[in-house]
């Protein structure tokens, strides 16, 4: 009996995870898989989704710079658990609404994860931004 669409999607997901572990040590293979996955994303994205990403693109670097300078990126990476926008506002001295608005494009790009409404946690992407070489380079761009 043929697999259902959901089963096929799950199989693709599992295979990608398996391949991801295999290519971790082979940069050429990793880049090849990344190219295939990037093309697949472009094939599956609707025009509205593509336009939305384009609209949000210029906001992400600015939002990230604001959150770095306010200490929010470092605080979330250090916390190792979700934090509410209200608490991030208190530790950064910013308005809660500013935190929420700065997080929107970054959550969409996977820099942070929104675990509940207005509650955020770090990801490997935001955590690597706290390392001195990347943090220093990003701040002076």
UniProtKB/TrEMBL annotation:
<dbReference type="GO" id="GO:0008168">
    <property type="term" value="F:methyltransferase activity"/>
</dbReference>
<dbReference type="Pfam" id="PF08100">
    <property type="entry name" value="Dimerisation"/>
</dbReference>
<dbReference type="InterPro" id="IPR036390">
    <property type="entry name" value="WH_DNA-bd_sf"/>
</dbReference>
<dbReference type="InterPro" id="IPR012967">
    <property type="entry name" value="COMT_dimerisation"/>
</dbReference>
<feature type="domain" description="O-methyltransferase dimerisation">
    <location>
        <begin position="54"/>
        <end position="131"/>
    </location>
</feature>
<dbReference type="InterPro" id="IPR016461">
    <property type="entry name" value="COMT-like"/>
</dbReference>
<protein>
    <recommendedName>
        <fullName>O-methyltransferase dimerisation domain-containing protein</fullName>
    </recommendedName>
</protein>
<dbReference type="GO" id="GO:0046983">
    <property type="term" value="F:protein dimerization activity"/>
</dbReference>
<dbReference type="InterPro" id="IPR036388">
    <property type="entry name" value="WH-like_DNA-bd_sf"/>
</dbReference>
């Amino acid at each position: 009996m043929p697999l259902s669409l959901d089963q096929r999607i799950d199989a693709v997901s599992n295979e990608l995870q398996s391949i991801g572990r295999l290519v971790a040590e082979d940069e050429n293979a990793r880049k090849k898989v990344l190219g295939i996955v990037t093309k697949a994303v472009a094939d599956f994205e609707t025009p509205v989704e593509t336009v939305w990403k384009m609209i949000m693109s210029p906001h992400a670097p600015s939002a990230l710079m604001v959150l770095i300078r306010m200490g929010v990126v470092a605080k979330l990476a250090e916390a190792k658990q979700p934090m509410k926008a209200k608490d991030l506002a208190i530790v950064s001295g910013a308005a809660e609404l500013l935190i929420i608005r700065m997080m929107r494009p970054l959550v969409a790009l996977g820099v942070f994860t929104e675990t509940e409404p207005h509650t955020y946690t770090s990801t490997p992407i935001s955590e690597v931004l706290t390392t001195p070489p990347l943090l220093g380079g990003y701040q002076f761009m």
